[in-house]
Design brief:
It is a single chain. The model has no long low-confidence stretch (mean pLDDT about 95). The strands form 3 sheets. A 6-stranded mixed beta sheet has the order 3-6-9-12-14-15. The relative contact order is 0.12. The chain is built from 2 helices and 15 strands. Helices cover about 15% and strands about 35% of the residues. The chain has helices at about 5-10, 20-30, and strands at about 30, 40, 45, 50-55, 60, 65, 70-75, 85-90, 95, 100-105, 105-110, 115-120, 125, 130-135, 140-145.
Amino acid sequence: MGKDIYSLLLSMRKYPFVNKVSYYTLKVLGVEMPLSVELKGKLILEHGAVGTVVHSKTSIGNNVKIYSNVTIGRADIYVPAEMSKFEKVIIEDEVILGSGCKVLCKEGVLQVAKGTVVGANAVLLQSTGENEIWAGIPARRVGFRTL
């Protein structure tokens, strides 16, 4: 576990009763992450990830870094939720979501593959391959990440 307040709050999510304290404290600190968001490992909220909003039907892998003002959710917000074809967003391990980026799924499942980097202010509307770098509006693959 990290040594910052955000790591502590995220680790509290797995315990009954204190998980609600964690949720509301994160919300006050500027991070909207419902308890239904599945965390599969260490999540790093860089610089507090202030302004970040994560859809309740999201799964986040291990060692994911999220910067400020990131949005993960539905692209079809004009459709009533019960009529939406949106199912889920999956963020795999080692993904980096740059400041202000949007990961938006219109239908089915959108998967951000292991090691992918989504650049600052990019609008990702499709699934990615492993270790790819995406940028732009709409986001396009611009390169590959070397580890």
